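Lay summary. Proteins are chains of building blocks that fold into shapes, and those shapes determine what they do. In this project we predict the shape from the chain. Here is one chain we studied, written as its sequence of building blocks.
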Amino acid sequence: MPSIACDVYNCSHNTDGGCKLSFLRVEGDEADYPDETICQSYTDSTSPNVKSDIGEDEYPKEYADVDCSAENCKYNSDHVCTADRISVGDSSAYKTRDTACETFDSEDTI
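And here is the predicted shape, written in a compact code that computers can read:
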């Protein structure tokens, strides 16, 4: 399980640069670069309908399970992220499509 660093300050799960979820999903089936991935677990903190998710605490989790569909990432092992730590960005994101797994590393660089 990786630890999560989150720069997406507008996400309702972000607390002090960490993620309150114990499980999150990264998508990007055919991604070749980090900006072709997204954090599907993103929830806009300014939305009037923000609700607490299952597995969410008031404090960031030390580690989280990460389901990853980025097939070309060297850290993806059967849809499980094997990185020790992942970083989710962009700090100015206001929609899911604006987020990215910045830890993504193409298998071509192995």
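What the prediction tells us: The CA atoms of residues 34 and 102 lie 5 Å apart.
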